[in-house]
Amino acid sequence: MTLKYCDGISRRNMLQTGFVGMTGLTCSDILRLAHAGDPSKASADSVLFFNLSGGPSHLDTLDMKPDGPSETKGEFHPISSKIASLPVCELLPKLAATLDQFTLIRGISHTAGAHPQAQSYISTGNRPNPAVVYPSYGSVVSNELPGHDDLPPYVAIPATEWNAGFMGDAYAPFKTNAVPQPGTPFSVRGISLPNGITLEKVQRRHKLLAEVDTRFRQADTNSQLLDALDTFGKQALNMITSARTQKAFDVSLEPQTIQKMFAADEVSQSLFLSVRLIEYGVRFVTVTNHGWDTHLDNFNGHRRLIPPFDAGITATIAALKAKGLLDRTLVIAMGEFGRTPKINVNVGRDHHPQVNWCLMAGGGVKPGQLIGGSDEGGEAPNDDTDIKPDDIGATILHALGIDHHQEYYTKSGRPVSLIPDGRVLGEVFA
Question: How far apart are CA 329 and CA 423, in angstroms?
């Protein structure tokens, strides 16, 4: 009979991962290591998630219904794309000409109709519930695939509401809270030393913080909070004292050939920074583009929003390819849901989680594919499509070599799988 420990882990697995007493690993650590995915089989080393916050209209972008009734099809005309038989919005000429470098997944469906819940869903692969706060993908990556000591593994440009859930704030994203301006050095608060502050002063303050932390640890205090303080304190010191970190965030050091690929607007400059950070080893970057919640004046709103998206996403792919990074970088673009086929009295479209799309490129993705679809009216997935945000999440983690069924323990000791209801969309990959 095989001796079992830690909820079914065998003695052999215990020996493979190290004794608890000798290594300091907890039982949950042993479980995590034993069930971990295989990074050697990963098709991607990093992820760039372009979050179209608010939810773009699928009917006015990449899931058009040009033969639909006038009350639903909207004001935009379709143009041909590099994916056969796929018309796209006329405001997407650059993407249309390069769409054969992407896989487009359509007909993604869920029932979370409010922004916070839907954003939580697409950031974690789990429908929100009051019992468990799941970690966003970047937090999972921070835990599973930590990178360089002087760079945060998870960066949000300029900010995000995505969080670390039950993993604790030690795995929360580092927010730039600003966007580069073309041609000027980019300074991020918390990385650059303010005037009058020397490295010697920073070291003294870090020593004082360590002494305070030791005193807190002698009391029965929130260990997750202290872990986060430990992590952020060490990370901040490493970043402030690292010349490499300063260079990573300074987009003005990029060659002109790369700089000229990106427009001067906030969207493109955010994506520009994300490409540089990935080159320097940041594992997970989110770029959040707000404004897609077009209940009012949907068409003028999309006339303003689509061109920067079109220019930004195509420049990102071109820059990653020019740097030799695209093959190992998974690029994703999507919002939290689509919008209603019916145009409301305010010439807008309302929330419609029943139909959504997701663009993927690089990172082992097979280019030029169209997966899934919606019905004739764009109201629901077609009969052949059953894709949930859980499946998108499982596919993202799979690309990174992380098992989405991997089990963690919450602070209360509850065992929780990362994405229990997800399935990897194997057809996405080459």
Answer: 21
